[in-house]
Amino acid sequence: MTIRFVTSNAGKVEEAREYLTDEVEQINYDYTEIQSDDLGEIAVAGAKEAYEGTDSDEPVLVDDAGLFVEALGGFPGPYSSYVEDTVGVERVWKLAEREENRRAYFRCVVAYYDGETAETFDGSVPGRMVAPRGEGGFGYDPIFEHEGQTLAEMSTEQKNAISHRGRALAKFADWLAERGE
Ligand code: ITT
Predict the structure, then answer these.
(1) Residue 33 above 70 pLDDT?
(2) Are 132 and 96 in contact (CB under 8 A)?
(3) Atom 20, ligand 1: which residue's CA is nearest?
(4) Is the CB of 140 inside a 6 Å radius of any atom of ligand 1?
(5) Cα Rg for the chain, rounded, in angstroms?
(6) CB of residue 66 inside a 6 A radius of ligand 1
(7) Quick one: which of 11, 1, 10 has its CA closest to 156?
(8) Is-contact 163 172, C-beta < 8 A?
(9) Which residue from 14, 56, 28, 54 is spatially nearest to 169, judged by alpha carbons?
């Protein structure tokens, strides 16, 4: 089976390939990102739209993720992508830097849809906001530290072992294996 990962983000695909024995193909499909506080709802709507809007009947995967900074009421949360594109990661650190409480977490929901079954898998990782460090990963990785290292200082393998996406993908891989696929 081939799983079509609907994303513009090659970093996500690289992380997914470490978990899934099936072939993972990256496809670009510009689905509507609905406005919602619920990452799962956003991801399922995207997966269904991408599936219906493409010709293949291979299942699709959509991943919606965000960084939630505690002292900022969970900002940027579901709007993380928009905030990265508009003001950038450094400015999010600048906001967090003014706060005494630097706690934050990443959350990820992976949605699977095969035309019949829709299923979601989630994961999160706690950490704290720090000044940017590290060259790896993508997005907010340089400003998010977990147990002394930023996610950008970790290899893909190390990041997967502790990350929001790694946890969600591990659940997804178990579910696929249980279904015998
Ligand atoms: P697609 O929607 O095409 O999959 P995207 O990068 O826009 O790509 P999201 O909407 O899920 O994906 O991303 C939300 C934001 O959070 C975006 O700015 C990402 O760079 C960032 N992000 C997601 N996962 C991350 C991770 O593991 N580490 C750091 N930043 C992450």
Answers:
(1) yes
(2) no
(3) 139
(4) yes
(5) 16
(6) yes
(7) 11
(8) no
(9) 14
Residue 165 Cα to ligand 1 middle (Å): 10
What are 177's two structure tokens? 């294996």
Say how many domains are in the chain: 1
Between residues 37 and 80, the one the model is more confident about: 80
For helices 10-17 and 164-178, the axis angle rounded to 10 degrees is 50
pLDDT in tens, 45-95: 999 999 999 999 999 999 999 999 999 999 999 999 999 999 999 999 999
Question: Could you tell me the residue range of the domain that residue 127 belongs to?
Answer: 3-178
Ligand 1: does its nearest atom lie under 6 Å from the Cβ of 124?
A: no
Contact present, 104 and 129 (Cβ < 8 Å): yes
- Measured from the CB, is residue 8 less than 6 Å from ligand 1? yes
CATH code, 146: 3.90.950.10
Closest protein CA for atom 22 of ligand 1: 139
> How far is the C-alpha of 6 from the C-alpha of 49, rounded, in Å?
11
Ligand 1 centroid – CA 81 distance (Å):
6
Give dist(CA 7, CA 30) in Å, integer.
8
